[in-house]
Amino acid sequence: MSAQSSLTPIDIAKLRNACSTCSVRELCLPAGLDLQELAQVDKMVNRRRPVRRGDYLYRAGTELQSLYAIRSGFIKSAVLHEDGREQVAGFHMTGDLLGLDAISAGRHLCDAVALEDTEVCDIPFALLERLAREIPSLQSHFNRIMSREIVRDHGVMLLLGSMRAEERLAAFLLNLSQRFATRGYSSTEFNLRMTREEIGSYLGLKLETISRVLSRFQQEGLIQVRNRYLKINDADALRRLVGHCES
Amino acid sequence: MSAQSSLTPIDIAKLRNACSTCSVRELCLPAGLDLQELAQVDKMVNRRRPVRRGDYLYRAGTELQSLYAIRSGFIKSAVLHEDGREQVAGFHMTGDLLGLDAISAGRHLCDAVALEDTEVCDIPFALLERLAREIPSLQSHFNRIMSREIVRDHGVMLLLGSMRAEERLAAFLLNLSQRFATRGYSSTEFNLRMTREEIGSYLGLKLETISRVLSRFQQEGLIQVRNRYLKINDADALRRLVGHCES
DNA sequence: GCGGCCTTTTGATCCATGTCAAGACTCGTG
DNA sequence: CACGAGTCTTGACATGGATCAAAAGGCCGC
Questions:
Q1: How far is A123 from chain B (nearest CA, A)?
Q2: How confident is the model at residue A20 (pLDDT cuts 50, 70, 90)?
Q3: Is B126 in the A-facing interface, judged by CB distances under 8 Å?
Q4: Is B104 helix (H, G, I), strand (E, B) or coil?
Q5: B167 CA, C27 C1': separation in Å?
Q6: E strand or H helix at B209
Q7: Distance (Å, whole) CA A124 – CA B100
Q8: Residue B55 phi/psi, 5° resolution?
Q9: What is the per-residue DSSP string for A11-51?
Q10: Nearest Cβ partner of B158 from A79, A136, A143?
């Protein structure tokens, strides 16, 4: 199916570059593209865009133009209630693909805000659909990405529906830890990019509860926290806390 | 793109039949298929399968073979914790497509159990992917279905994360009501297919709470309940209760 | 039609988390 | 360097929903 075996080292380097520089390894690396396909993908994803801390990547209600792959940085997505409350739907980091929920209605249903200076790759959705039509493995991979998002959401539902505050926060920290590890950063030491309030919103808890539970974890020696800095001392203990509920 | 204009009345009848009899109007109706495509879809979806009340459609851990479109009946999907607790992830009725979360890992991650005698259409996933490759509008539609599932999940997350018991139950009843209406049934009078415990699991509440809130709604004249029978007297009041949080 | 099991209702009490409030810390800016 | 806004911590108290318990009602097989 693929002409992968005919790739020269230069092609491979180019491919690797196209993927890693644009954080679409998520999207194209496992797809097994040939040279021509590569050129197409190259064209598609070579539209970088910086988003400064506090700026919106997109807002609820706007038309879906592109999906966005995070090249670097940190973004939260959130739905806004009419009464001003906001519910954080997810935190996204390097390599994550944003905007999937907009495909359904053709317009975004949540806001995406950068929590630190961020660079994304702009992936025009129409172009992606067209390309995926021509490159079956790309389509197949895209299906899996969508499905993975559904699985992730089910995990959050489980967390919100059946875990207590301590369990939720432990699960959250472990999840962050693991995602940093996957990206080559320390799994035990990192800076939170979000406020206690945002964590609380995501976990269905109030900011005071987040603060209290973090303090308790620290007292018990499981972690060290100071403001946004966080160090995990005893990941196993956290895992035991989460106990029977893995997402 | 499509040869739709060349369809004879007979073809159209056949198409309508293929769709309505198998509850894949969800999947194929909006796709604008031509005759040959129709034949292919026909082949794909003409595998019906009955599932008796209490039986599993699939179990967590089993390999993904097919997606399932519900032709009639009622199915719950649930993830099982190691400790035996279960978390209901969704209730599904006629026309719904099940199994999307399995695409990610190639195996099912939750159980699907029939809450009443049910008939589903078996849609081999490999075949669906192949067909979608040949019929762009089918692929496009499938993307939207996946996205819609993500949107639905976000709605549940919002409900679990930021609504109180009364609001959750009101939202749940309105959602059921609306889905029955869409399918041509009464929006105000229907039988619940699930136990209080299952509702509670879905909404992140205990069965006693469900029972109590239902009783309270009844006292206030919003609904009438007797066992599984439910009648909505004042949908507007329920909507006001849910207030600012629409999913 | 009876007996047993599952589901539902309702009451009493408890507890985890929310709410309210005060003060401390942090960081960016004038 | 001081100020002020935003963020975080901690305490006291309130409360929604969980838990425990008992009894009633419905359903199914015999």
A1: 16
A2: very low
A3: no
A4: coil
A5: 39
A6: helix B207-219
A7: 24
A8: -80, 155
A9: HHHHHHHHHHHHT-HHHHGGG---HHHHHHHHHHH--EEEE
A10: A79
The 3-state DSSP class for residue B60 equals coil
Structure tokens at A190: 């990192």
- Residue B16, CB-side half-sphere exposure with 13 Å CA sphere: 7
CA distances to A206, B102, B202, B211, B214 from B165, in Å: 17, 31, 12, 11, 10
**CA geometry: angle at A43 spanning A41 and A45, to 5°?**
70
Chain A residues whose beta carbon lies within 8 Å of the beta carbon of residue B89: 154, 157-158
Check residues 201 to 220 of chain B and report those whose beta carbon is under 7 Å from nucleic acid strand C. 207-208, 210-212, 214-215
pLDDT tens digits, one per residue of A24-78: 555 655 556 666 666 767 666 778 899 999 999 999 999 999 999 999 999 999 9
Strand D-contacting residues in A 28-57, CB cut-off 7 angstroms:
none
Residue A24's beta-bridge partner residues? none
* Conformation bin of residue A210: beta by default, left when phi > 0, alpha when psi is -120 to 50: alpha
Identity of the residue in B82, B153, B204 whose CB atom sits nearest the CB atom of A153:
B153
Nearest to A164 by CA among B88, B204, B208, B201: B204
